[in-house]
Amino acid sequence: MKLKKFFRVSFGAALLATAFSSASVLAQTSMWKVSKGNDYLYIGGTVHLLPESAFPLPAEFGVAYQATDTLVLEVKMPDPADVAAQTALLQAMAYSDGRSLAKVLSPEVYQQVSNYFAPYGVQLQQLDGYKPGFVALQMLALEMMKAQMAGEGVDSYFDKKAQADGKTLAYLETVESQLNLLAKMGEGYEDAFMKMNLEQVSDFKSYFAAMIAAWRAGDMDALDKLAVEPARELDPVLYQALFVQRNNAWLPQIEKMFGNDSKELVLVGGGHLAGDDSVLALLQQAGYQVQQVR
């Protein structure tokens, strides 16, 4: 596989990685109504990349969309064909200080990563100028394609729909902030980070299928165990950056959506709505009524 093809799939994998959360039909789904008195908004958990078999989406997503006039996403969705966005990703993920993958990884781990890419016809030297986070994104993209699970995500689906319907769009973060987050993944503990990623992709298809099932069913306990808890236990540094810090930064932005003339549908990665540090837990602690839509 050519390196250029890697770069074309990287941005989708990057969006997934920033909130990696990832289809059975039960009585619940990943949609919540958050109320303060008579005022309310909807918050939905998403999966950033989905196989075509996951569509149509749960009906509750469509109901919430129709009941609101503003769609709030984590970040403005980049066009996969946007050369400037791809260039920004590559620049953020490339070393510019003389370091390289071969220098930050031990020979043992470097060989393990090299062995992973070899069956795809990719020599690790082709990625030597890029940071571990970028290499992990390529692994994720490969596993998504191999499992035939790469497709449009919930966010991009509603982004296109909102644009076509003329709805207002708003964002919780900038593209630059997400790229900065991705660029710092694994920094300072590169060996442990790459070994963790190698372990996670070893059974990716069944793992991601379970994530999608938990998301679709609105089973936050299962999603917490699958996505949030492993990050908290195996990589507490990344957990703080991916989940805790971002959830806390989003809370005041969501609170400002109450008391205005708009009705919002907020869509964030499903992992941000699971666990003790979730957006939903923070809203409940702040005194809002949080009710799962059934």
Backbone shape? globular
Please count the beta strands (DSSP E, at least 2 residues each): 6
> How many separate structural domains?
1
Radius of gyration: 19 Å
SSE sequence, one letter per element = HEEHEHHHHHEHHHHHEHE
Extract low-pLDDT stretches: 1-27
The portion of residues forming beta strands comes to 5-15%
Count of individual helical segments: 13
Estimate the mean pLDDT confidence. Answer: 86
> Roughly what percent helix?
40-55%
Largest sheet: 6 strands, mixed
Derived structural class? alpha/beta
Cα-to-Cα separation, first versus last residue: 44 Å
With strands numbered from the N-terminus, the spatial order across the biggest sheet is 4-3-5-2-1-6
Structure described in brief:
This protein has helices spanning 3-17, 59-66, 83-93, 101-104, 107-117, 132-146, 154-165, 175-183, 190-200, 204-217, 220-234, 236-255, 279-285, and strands spanning 31-36, 39-46, 70-73, 168-171, 264-269, 289-292.
List the helices and strands and how they pair.
Layout: H1 3-17, E1 31-36, E2 39-46, H2 59-66, E3 70-73, H3 83-93, H4 101-104, H5 107-117, H6 132-146, H7 154-165, E4 168-171, H8 175-183, H9 190-200, H10 204-217, H11 220-234, H12 236-255, E5 264-269, H13 279-285, E6 289-292
Parallel strand pairs: 2-5, 3-4, 3-5
Antiparallel strand pairs: 1-2, 1-6
Helix pairs in contact: 1-3, 1-6, 3-8, 5-9, 10-11, 11-12
